[in-house]
Protein 1
Amino acid sequence: MSQRPVPVGPDGVNPGRARQAVRSLYAHPVLTAADLTAPLLVVPDGQLCLPGAATLDHVPALVDRWARLGIRGLKLFVRGHGRDAHGSGATAPGNRMIRAIRTVKGTAPDMAVTTEVCGCSWTDHGQCVLRTADGTIDLDATYRLMSAMAVQHAEAGADVASPTAMLDGSIHAVRAALDGSGFRDVGVNPNIALHTGLYGPFKELMGTNPQCGHRRGLQLEPGRADRDALIQARRWIAEGADSLTLQPVMTAVDVLVRLRAEQQVPLTAYSTSGEWDALCALGVEGMVEYHSMLKRAGADVILTFAAEKIAARLEVSRG
Ligand SMILES: [Zn+2]
């Protein structure tokens, strides 16, 4: 039996796609500014080596620019202050995070604000977790710290708390604390983080490099991440997560595809700080193509240092 030939027009073009009107009918834009969220890194001084890094007084202008470009969400990180072994500054009234949340919401009330909930910006040892005198992780103290941070962020106006240390039990603790404080409508978006060299510029800028050791025990091993990410996602959702963030996405697109196939919750793909130089080498057209691919691969939202550049480019091409 002979195969039915594929219809091809006289100039070798599939007739169903040849006409501009038909191509336009099918070719919906892969990427829009609404797919992008931006990291906002609030720092005390002028070390602004990454896009989205700003001192508090520059936050309104930056957030206003993002909102005008159609960016609808940001993730807020701050460089901590008053750091000690207990991360006390993280829950000090009116700390930099609280002021930043209020500033963003005061500037752009509709901007979805996700906040980093973690010890590493606030401990003097730069670790995400608190430790007992003998060096083991103090689970209860860490849960209490993360829970108190999440509630304070919610009180200041945050929409989603993002516990970033991958500590079993912490998502349940944060969810319960938010519920118990009347913030049932505040989301919890934990990390699925692979061990990588692609966190470097962020850790340098925010002072979150552990002073000794590393946090590899709290991250997925890349060689097993295709399977471990699925296990972790199930665990986080069982603990109360309503959305997830995968990072760094550039070296884990396969993991993103697998997560998408298994999970229905919103997935944020985080293009981390170490990807920035590579993205710059691609140029803005390459950035658009890369982020379009992440959306095709299953990301609902892409958290990226390239958000403003891409949104500006998309606005120009929309005309
Ligand atoms: Zn951390």
Protein 2
Amino acid sequence: MKAAIYKRYGSPDELSIEDISAPVPKKGEVLVRVYASSVNRTDCGFLRGKPLIVRLFSGLRKPKSTILGCEFAGEIVEVEVGVTGFYVGDRVMGFKDDDYGFGGHAEYTAMSVEGMISHIPERFGYEEAAVGFEGAHYALHYIRAANISKDQTVLINGATGAIGSAGLQIIKHLGAKVTAVCAGAHVGLVKSLGADQVINYEETDFTELAEQFDVVFDSVGKSTFGRCKKILKEEGIYMSTELGPYSQNPFLALLTKFHGKRRVLFPIPENTKQDADYLASLMEKGVYKPVVDKSYQLDDIAEAFRYVETGMKIGNVVINVV
Ligand SMILES: NC(=O)c1ccc[n+]([C@@H]2O[C@H](COP(=O)([O-])OP(=O)(O)OC[C@H]3O[C@@H](n4cnc5c(N)ncnc54)[C@H](OP(=O)(O)O)[C@@H]3O)[C@@H](O)[C@H]2O)c1
């Protein structure tokens, strides 16, 4: 099969397109013909092997697995013993980053049906389905950790990113009131995703707002708890998807659990089949629609990585594997 391979940590120049053997599915797994995948920030971290903590999972000196692409959408071409609920010909979407066997940047990938795999809702094509899980899955874990619910007020910084754009749609579905922060050019997009109020960060520093929120969710990790304290209600929650400039967020999560009223949360996501089915059901109901920025062919994957590494993609970047 054709696949994008990397054998050393480094820049997108390390990627090459090669012909290699297709994976052989094991008991409880399906083999999927991949039609579309994505390049996301998780893939970028594993390509560079940065932050260094990533290497505890991916291999200390060089990558243990050579194919990135933690999201995919395609058609099942083989079903192994022990699989129930999935059949040859089914259209499926999946996400896998837990056992570091990504595999979406190839024509075939094998996956356990106990992981984050679900049927693609009828109204979605492979491109949109391929980017349905990464951002939404991380967003969901933060939303659950903070127990975001009806009538709460939530500020989302980076509402145009993969995590932010998915999180905004899910939080609105839960009935909370959302103030979204983005660049001026994307105010229209963010309003169309359901934001009640939009702050253009080029004009207004959201940390100086007079309003206070139940939750500040920095989905692009550009702020700090210290700067956001004054816009948090007395028992408000601050969450960031990044470690913070001094890697302080996991420590603050521990500290604020026992000290002070305002809390920092830094949840560790878990991949479950239930979440895959839940997110697919939100897509089916029209509650959540993944935002697609650009699409690239597999041959141009290095270019896609360079774009995603700018940190300025809007929603998601698709890789067509056909
Ligand atoms: N903790 C975890 O488990 C986990 C997992 C995956 C990723 N991450 C991290 O989460 C972050 C977000 O990932 P993502 O894929 O959702 O992001 P992304 O799609 O790369 O985010 C890009 C967006 O960020 C916005 N942005 C850039 N600078 C900004 C600023 N100063 N203020 C506000 N918005 C800004 C840009 O929109 P505008 O043009 O509108 O500014 C752009 O749409 C990354 O830092 C990634 O490393 C964490």
